Amino acid sequence: MYPAATKILIVDDTALMRRMMRDLFIEMGYKALTDANDGAAAWKEYSQAAADGNPFELIISDWNMPKLSGLEFLKLVRDSAGGKTVPFLMLTAESEKDKVVEAIKAGVTGYITKPFTPDTVKQKVKAAYETSLKNAAAKAG
Amino acid sequence: MVADVFAAAVVEALKIQCSYDVSKERTYICDDASTASTIVYEIGAVLALVGKQFSGSISISYSKTLYLALIGAILRQKFDEISSDLEDGAGELLNMIFGVAKAKLEADHGYSFKSAIPTIIVGPNIHMRALTAHAQIAVQFKGKDGPFEIRVSAGNDQNS
Fold it and tell me: Which of A95, A107, B82, B96 could pair with B103 in a Cys bridge, judged by C-beta atoms 3.0 to 4.6 Å apart?
């Protein structure tokens, strides 16, 4: 799994979901958590952290949000300097599975379908970490 | 049929997201005063549905104790009051229920429809009623912490 100091950005327009995710990541041992209540606020947090030289190392974002959707936020991240490989997990509704293709094209690392259990989130985070390791190894080799 | 799919989606979504078991108690037509519910609900959410085959709405109303139990199960904490930061859970849960039902209706029946952003209603004795020409079907549920119900109003406006 990611080291405990991994810098994580949680993005959801629902306070309940942000709180649930935060509690879950704390339970998983992570400490460097930031949350944002829509895609625009998330992009601001992401850009500032990148400009400060302390970028986020994992992003978990809802899809349907006001101002800037999760997909639009993902595209901005992927188009930004240093944002090509940051692990990005997207939360989608059960009925939006068709949209996942669009997210994959945009470079999403993985997705979590609502409703979900805490174990599903843990498994997806683990899978994202393993993907990151493989990508890093491929880049190095 | 649409109400049955939503009722099944309620059970499934709450089981997965909240690890909470609920059972269907009864189904009734809302306009029939003889069968109308007298249960007091204190928080709910409503979602407009628009599609090719039908349009309408889905609403959900919770007793306070049941809602707090569901939110408490998600956050793994005990709550005694519905504070403002817990209210948006009603909309999120309805979105999840809608998502499960929509996937089923699309896959099994070829339906295609969208929803709007949910509206959350909070108050000491809320009563959901859809102003529509279509029949409004209510399905009442029970969990170990209290009752709740959904109301589904769906029909083809072009035929009504």
Answer: A95
pLDDT digits (tens, 9 = 90+) for B77-114: 999 999 998 999 999 999 999 999 999 998 998 888 88
Residue with tokens 């190894």: A137
- Residues shown for chain A: 141
d(CA B138, CA B141): 10
B146-155 and B136-143: which strand pairing?
antiparallel
The answer to whether residues A28 and A125 touch, using CB atoms and an 8 Å cutoff, is yes
Q: pLDDT exceeding 90 applies to what percent of chain B?
A: 59
Closest CA to A39 of A80, A68, A64, A18: A68
- For the stretch A18-27, contacts whose Cβ atoms lie closer than 8 Å and that sit 24 or more positions apart, written own/partner, are A19/B75, A19/B85, A20/B74, A20/B75, A21/A60, A21/A121, A23/B75, A23/B76, A24/A118, A24/A121, A24/A122, A27/A118
Residue A87 has pLDDT above 90, yes or no: yes
Ordered DSSP codes for A100-128: HHHHHHTT--EEEEES--HHHHHHHHHHH
ipTM of the complex: 0.88
Compute the C-alpha angle B89/B10/B64, nearest 5°: 45
Residues of B with CB under 8 A from a CB of A: 12-14, 16-17, 19, 71, 74-76, 85-86, 88-89, 91-92, 95-96, 98-100, 102-103, 106
On the question of pLDDT at A70 being above 90, the answer is yes
- Give the tokens for residue A109: 């690392």
Distance between A138 CA and the closest CA of chain B, angstroms: 37
Cα–Cα distance, A83 to A87 (Å, whole number): 9
What CA–CA distance (Å, rounded) separates B5 from B104?
7
A95 in reach of chain B (CB within 8 A): yes
Q: Which residues contact A102 (CB under 8 A, 6 or more apart)?
A: A71
